[in-house]
Amino acid sequence: MSIHPPSGSLKKRKIVGRGQGTGRGCTAGRGSNGQKSRSGFSRQMGFEGGQMPLARRIPKRGFNNTKFEKAYQAVNIQDLNRFNDGDDVGYDALLKMGLVNKKTPFVKLLAKGELKKKLTIRVHRASAAAKEAVEKVGGSLDIIL
């Protein structure tokens, strides 16, 4: 048995610049002379042909603090039903279950759905409705800073 890619998945590269008879000779599909016809050409991102670029024409105002902003991962209470009754649910437990990822360790609990299990939940933020829903089933919610 030989392993080969599915038919149609591989496409042969068109060879250019090999004489007039190939149909891609002379300028090799690059058009006439100019910077774009030369090898190694790559246009700078945002280049507008020598015109003052848009990024430099528009005034810069204000202050942006997104670099230091905390990004929270949202977890709904309906997703916590996969834990066992009486479990301790923190970031590590949520990560193990695949409910959060490693991009940011901050978690916010939201109230979508219905919680049916009594859990001890430790998150960084929670909506008021989520806190109420957890306490309604007899669980506890700890906000960690």
Stretches where pLDDT is under 50 for at least 5 consecutive residues are none
Helix percentage: 10-25%
- Report the structural category: alpha/beta
Counting structural domains, the number is 2
Lateral strand order in the biggest sheet: 1-3-5
- Number of distinct helices: 3
State the end-to-end distance.
59 Å
In N-to-C order, the SSE pattern is HEEHEEEHE
Q: What is the arithmetic mean of pLDDT?
A: 92
Quickly give the CATH architecture of the largest domain.
Ribosomal Protein L15, Chain: K, domain 2
Number of strands: 6
Radius of gyration: 29 Å
What does this structure look like?
- With 145 residues, the protein is an alpha/beta fold.
- The protein folds into 2 domains: 15-61, no CATH class; 67-143, Ribosomal Protein L15, Chain: K, domain 2, CATH 3.100.10.
- It contains 3 helices and 6 strands, in the order αββαβββαβ.
- It has helices at 54-57, 91-97, 128-136, and strands at 73-76, 88-89, 107-110, 120-123, 125-126, 140-143.
- A 3-stranded parallel sheet has the order 1-3-5. A 3-stranded parallel sheet has the order 2-4-6.
- The longest helix is centred in the last third of the chain and has 9 residues, at 128-136.
- The protein is elongated and about 80 Å long.
- It starts with 53 loop residues before the first helix and ends with a strand.
- The mean pLDDT is 92.
